[in-house]
Amino acid sequence: SQQGEEDPQALSIQEGENATMNCSYKTSINNLQWYRQNSGRGLVHLILIRSNEREKHSGRLRVTLDTSKKSSSLLITASRAADTASYFCATDAPGNTPLVFGKGTRLSVIA
Amino acid sequence: GAGVSQSPSNKVTEKGKDVELRCDPISGHTALYWYRQSLGQGLEFLIYFQGNSAPDKSGLPSDRFSAERTGGSVSTLTIQRTQQEDSAVYLCASSFDGESKAFFGQGTRLTVV
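Predict the joint structure of the above. Result:
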């Protein structure tokens, strides 16, 4: 299975601190994506990084990808209470394959 | 519509009944995904439609589950003879070409009593 695995499962930090979440996967990928979920309903896309990219930024988000280690990290800088949510990585493999998600990291940012 | 629409938002059904969950993807999106999420858990892949290709049904947990996508647009996930372990939130997503970001609906919360 190409399913990603995030760690840690849960993370609690103070507002203003940085939060780092990691994702590992098992097979070759086309892209790796990060999503956010509030309140157990629909997910919102945060950022997509292609297999030939190593780092990408979007606002307070920084994503890295190491295809040799089959791993990615999501860094949220200067966290806010509103960043409290679950964060999931998702990968798709070459060919006509579905987007497969990991189990997620539950982030709590304490004001 | 502007986003992915799922209906109903909530469904309570008796054990043994059949249910149909509907997903209306973003117009023009060729890829459509169904996932299941139990409370506090990750997303379990169920089925994937991409264009005119045969659907990837590898995630369907049993033959009680089936899905179809008519005319490359609306999709219906059907669960026959529902069991209590089918209780979960069922999420649908679509993307432009299967390699782009996915847009999610708000899900259908299914409760089997």
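The interface with chain B takes residues 30-31, 33, 35, 40-45, 48, 88, 90, 92, 96-104 of chain A (CB under 8 Å).
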